User: Fold this.
Amino acid sequence: MAWSPQNARETQRQAAFARLWEQERERVWRLSVALSGSRDDADDLTQEVGVRALEGFGRFRGLSSASTWLHRITVNVALRHRERRRESVALDTDAASGEVGPERQAVHADTLQRTQAAIERLPDELRTPLVLVAWEGLSYKEIATLMEIPIGTVMSRLHTARQRLRKELGDAL
Assistant:
């Protein structure tokens, strides 16, 4: 291919995206696991996010950070995936290793299962900010940017989600 300004710009764009994806791919995957509940689904979602991000990278205007932009794509892809599959979401819960008696293990497993089920029953608009704050450690401001809602709405949704979980789980929490 002969050199041209357009080819040079495209090469630079692809190199910039490759650097961004290398830095953020693992975070995208972890968020995909948290939102889908499945490592296998997370692999597929991460691949889809990468394709969509590459396709849209030329339109990225830098109004937010690149990682926020990728997180927004990830949330959108995961929500569309959930809508398509209409399956319940089970959050990834690798059991912590350690010396725990069988009775305590059973109680812990039951509590974990009940908590997962309660989170799965939350509507997407409540579950998504809860997952983003609890598993991804995002700030309310970052969540507001990702979800394109006011920060007050993020706070309200988190409060409502936690309230529903407390009501449903009671002493389990």
